[in-house]
Amino acid sequence: MIKPYDDTYYMKCALQEAETAFKKGEIPIGAVIAINNQIIARSHNLTETLNDVTAHAEMQAITAAANFLGGKYLQDCTLYVTIEPCQMCAGALFWSQIQNIIYGARDEKRGCINLKSKLHPKTKIRGGIMAKEASELLKKFFIEKRNLN
Questions:
Q1: pLDDT (tens digit, 9 = 90+) per residue, 94-136?
Q2: Which of 17, 26, 58, 84 is catalytic?
Q3: Cα 100 from Cα 148, distance rounded (Å)
Q4: Is beta strand 100-105 parallel, antiparallel or unpaired with respect to 78-83?
Q5: In terms of CB atoms within 10 Å, which end of the chain has fewer, N or C?
Q6: What ranges in the chain are assigned the alpha helix state H?
Q7: Is residue 58 annotated as part of the catalytic site, yes or no?
Q8: Cα angle, residue 80 at apex, residues 7 and 84 outer, rounded to 5°
Q9: Coil, helix or strand for 125?
Q10: pTM
Q11: SS3 123
């Protein structure tokens, strides 16, 4: 049985955001930020919608969480994101001083781990939560995209 407010619960919320992105024709990556068992930010990729290469799910979530908290630091927060953050998002997460990053599937090509992106020294990163579901949604998106072109 799934306990409310565990990593799986929050990742399911992030996957719902990824599904929303998928339906909009965006790369299906979703993110939520939580603090004290409360989601304070929900987001998904908006790069196509906003015509902005920086409009990744994590970037949108950082902004929303900072606005909610009334400050730029997310020191007591946890980011749940369906795919490992890229180097750009890792840089923004460094500056936000976020406490935890929990991701679903790895991004072997563009992810922050293989690119050795620096995170804040107090930030902990962990992956593999609902990785199969996150990876399958991403694969489905790119298969459909290729078939349309």
A1: 999 999 999 999 999 999 999 999 999 999 999 999 999 999 9
A2: 58
A3: 38
A4: parallel
A5: N
A6: 7-24, 47-50, 57-69, 87-96, 131-148
A7: yes
A8: 115
A9: strand
A10: 0.94
A11: coil
